[in-house]
Amino acid sequence: MKIALLSDFHLGFKQAGRENEAFENAMQAMQLALEKGAELIIISGDIFDKEVPNAETLLEAFTIFSLARNANEKSTHIKKVARTQSETISLKGVPVIAIHGTHEFRARDYVNYLQLFESAGFIVYLHAAKAIIEAQNERIVVHGLGGVPEKKALDALKLWNPKPEQNAFNILVLHQSLKEFLPFDDEMIATLSIDSLPEGFDIIVDGHLHWQNELVEGSRHLVLPGSTIITQMKRLEAKKPKGFYIIETKTKKLEFCALPNQRPFIYEKIEFENASVEEVLKALKERLSQLVEKPHAKKPLIKIKLLGSLAKGHSQENIDIKSIIKEFEDKALISVDSSFFQESFTKKLAELSDLQKQRKSIIELGFDILEKNLAETDFNNAFDVRRVFKLLENNDVEKARELLITAQESAEKIKKQF
Ligand SMILES: [Mn+2]
Q: 118-149, pLDDT tens digit by residue?
């Protein structure tokens, strides 16, 4: 069986000049996968860029899933098995199996949008569950775990504890960071590493990491389809095209299929030493002129990193990058990141980044404090802190109260036993 591995469409992602790109790229991926004869489509999370997509974005998703649904007249019965229940779901056309990513993750008291697409008959949605397909004398088992907060990923994987089935082609699908792929300058944390992933699966597909990669480590065959769109402009994404993989289960042959019409992405560094503002501007302009010389079908995305040092008395605040971006706006979508070494400025930046970190971690800090305080009470670990927090954040006070009361009752029961 030919299985297409797609990931991270980020439908709803918008940036000036790239308003339709997420949709166009995801459409290209789905179209090409079907043209290539895919008989099953697996999407490893982040179909949507936001937890709650708007109607326009939902329509885009329906359009993409309809391509698969209308690809042929067949109907496939998929047995979905979760810890406590099992059901058979029939999908028309080429079946799509998906997990949620970090972008569309919703706490368990809320319905996520993949559940909605499952109930509409467009996909089978897996979270700590597996899907079994029997077709053409083959048995395919897709084991899926949606994206969970990185801190909890290792525990979640251990708790779920997926096991490959005998006489079947087993695919494990995840949406997490892996320690091996985290660059030093990245703030993402990871609790999973390749050797912490379970063994015995024919392939392990991981979404979330936006650049494509394939590697075999020990008995594990890891495949990162990468995103179909550039969202954060990471250096690694400039090296490889966007696309998806197709695997043939019998031969285990893996093929990468690049999107036929994608926006070029150029990532460059320019280094200076004691340069004046004028020199930086001149060099930046010259480099950009060279880069846009060659005509492209789509305006290229260019990210330039300015590094090194400025001359005494020159400050990067005086480098008018905006007007340069404007000058080239007909030819490219430019983003310039200046990280000159300047003592006072570096200090200022460090302060700013500290401030930002503090702001970012206030919610995490809240969790930590609550968790710590609870550990000292009779509540102990009687309820899911994150869940209660999310409920309170959404003003579902009544539901949070109920949860706490149930937790208190069970805590008291435990206490009575001692
Ligand atoms: Mn993503």
A: 999 999 999 999 999 998 899 999 999 999 98
Distance 344 CA to ligand 1 centre (A): 35
- Which CATH number, 3.40.30.10, 3.60.21.10, 3.30.420.40, 3.40.50.300, labels domain 2-258? 3.60.21.10
> What pLDDT, on a 0 to 100 scale, did the predictor assign at position 359?
60
DSSP code string of 11-56: BT---TT-TTHHHHHHHHHHHHHHHTT-SEEEEES-SBSSSS--HH
Instruction: Tell me, in angstroms, the distance from the centre of ligand 1 to residue 210's CA.
Output: 6
| C-alpha of residue 5 to centroid of ligand 1, in Å | 14
Per-residue pLDDT reduced to its tens digit, 368-401: 777 777 766 666 566 777 788 788 878 888 888 8
Residue 149 vs residues 25, 56, 103: alpha-carbon distances, Å: 27, 28, 11
Q: What is the pTM of this model?
A: 0.81
